[in-house]
Amino acid sequence: MSDPLDCKSLKCPMPIVRISQRIRRIATGDVFSVEASDPAFHADLVAWTQTTGHRLVSFKEEGSVQYAEIEKVGV
Amino acid sequence: MSEIEPGVVTDDPALESLIEQKVDERVDRILAELGQRIEGKPVLANRATLVVFSGELDKLMAAFIIATGAVAMGMEVSMYFTFWGLTAVKKQTILSGKAPLEKMMAKMMPGGPGGAATSSLNMLGLGPVFFKKMMKNKNVSSLEDLIALAGEMGVRMIGCQMSMDVMGITQDELIDNLDYGGVATYLGDARDSRVTLFI
What we know:
The structure holds two protein chains of two kinds. Chain A has a single domain, classed as Translation Initiation Factor IF3. Chain A contains two helices and four strands. Chain A has helices spanning 14-25, 41-52; strands spanning 5-7, 31-36, 55-62, 65-71. In chain A, strands 1-2-4-3 form a four-stranded mixed sheet, with helices on one face. The longest helix of chain A is centred in the N-terminal third of the chain and has 12 residues, at 14-25. Chain A starts with a strand and ends with a strand. Chain B has seven helices and seven strands; from the N terminus they run E-E-H-E-H-E-H-H-H-E-H-E-H-E. Chain B is an alpha/beta fold. The A-B interface holds A 9-14, 16-17, 19-20, 47-48, 51-52 and B 65, 68-69, 71-74, 138-141, 149, 153.
């Protein structure tokens, strides 16, 4: 597992931009966690994983912070 | 004895080859039919093509949020800047060499994205001040940051040469990593793009 990606307080489109930048730097099968606070984050993340084919391993929400784990799939 | 598939056994080689032949014929027929259906349908590239016609702060924000978001989604992105949209890619105003009308226009237009008005509630320039302050308070990236980010992410930006000529804008006044083209360049990109927008 690589370092967690802190997207708290970032607004659209920055969380998915940061995630897409991270995913390029890691190896297939690697998992990393993301913390975000944008209310649109979950919807955007689901759309992003469906489009790019990467896997949303887990997602939970605690108060105003959302935690997601993403696995890089394919190349 | 040979097993054609699990649980199905035959000792007749003629039957086996007949089945194989029939299956092959059927597969070929289906493939040919599918091929005919696919033929003639355009194959769309995973690309978004945006025409940026407007030069207002809010509309440019929308254009660059979509562009950077699309790259994040794995898409290739082209942005065509035309007419007022050229404001987004303007780095400086050069008055020397311009005709009188062009000079007047250059002085009245924003010198770059930082000087863009808002499309509503501009209030003689107060609107953008409020808008930028509110964006900053909510931690939304500024327009200038989004433009720089789009460049770093590999968004292809194209200036419309015809509108530049009309408005007397030269390539020296626009950012360095800009390509130049016309309507055919745009249409060549747009005709097989999955997403096309006019902003």
